[in-house]
Amino acid sequence: MKTLIKKSLLVVAVLATTLTIANEDRTFSVNANAEKTTVSINDVEEGQQLSIIDQNNIVIYKETINKNGNYNKTFDLTALPNGDYFFELEKTLKVHTIPFTVAYNNVTFNKDKETVVYKPSVRLKNDLLFVSQLSTRKAPLKIELFFDKDFNGDYELIHNETLENDITLDKVFKLS
User: Fold this and answer.
1) Distance in angstroms (rounded) separating the CA atoms of residues 145 and 127
2) Contact 78/107 with Cβ under 8 angstroms?
3) Residue 24 CA to chain centroid, in angstroms?
4) Under CATH, to which class is 26-113 assigned?
5) I need a labelling partner for 147 at 20 to 30 A (CA). Which of 35, 110, 159, 167 fits?
6) Model confidence over 5-42: pLDDT tens digits?
7) Are strands 128-134 and 106-109 parallel, antiparallel or unpaired?
8) How many helices and strands (H and E) does the chain possess?
9) Using one digit for the tens of pLDDT, what is the confidence trace for 108-150?
């Protein structure tokens, strides 16, 4: 039964619009007179992903961090077409986004729109599914559970819930 549950249950989305400004573990140096932008990030871990993503959510640069400690890299962001972009640092428990705009070879970072989204924690123990997530701004947390009883990729929504004004989501679902 446990194998059946593992194979047939798909937690498609525990979506959160959990946004917080987080400046404690990264600093950015932007020299307005130069074509280059140096990105410095403290406390990175091997295996984390750094990406540059455009306004259409197309990944235009992706790098896997290869050592623990501090990360420093210089980018020529002025070579990008005019538009809105963001750096995304995917850590183990959270995703940092750092938005910037390129306009006529000028790069502008909008520090007020830097965000951190905390990832949900999902684990299965026997026939219980444990789901938890942090929402530091009490933003709505949406839970959707899907089930594929025939193992054919045709998932059926079996639970849909949105929690308002909660700092943490801690739910247990009985799957039997």
Assistant:
1) 14
2) yes
3) 17
4) mainly beta
5) 167
6) 443 333 333 322 233 333 344 444 444 456 788 888 88
7) unpaired
8) 1, 15
9) 888 888 888 888 888 889 988 888 877 766 677 788 888 888 8
CA-angle at 13, arms to 8 and 15, nearest 5°: 165
Q: State yes or no: pLDDT of 51 exceeds 50.
A: yes
For the chain, give the number of residues.
176
pLDDT tens for each residue of 157-175: 988 988 887 777 788 888 8
In single-letter form, the type of residue at position 72 comes to: N
Q: Domain boundaries in the chain?
A: 2-17+121-174, 26-113
- pLDDT given for residue 5 in this prediction: 42
pTM beyond 0.85, yes or no = no
Reduced 3-state DSSP string for the chain = CHHHHHHHEEEEEEEECCCCCCCCCEEEEECCCCCCEEEEEEEECCCCEEEEEECCCCEEEEEECCCCEEEEEEECHHHCCCEEEEEEEECCCEEEEEEEEEECCEEEECHHHCEEEECCEEEEECCEEEEEEECCCCCCEEEEEEECCCCCCCCEEEEEEEECCCCEEEEEEECC
Structure tokens at 62: 């992706």
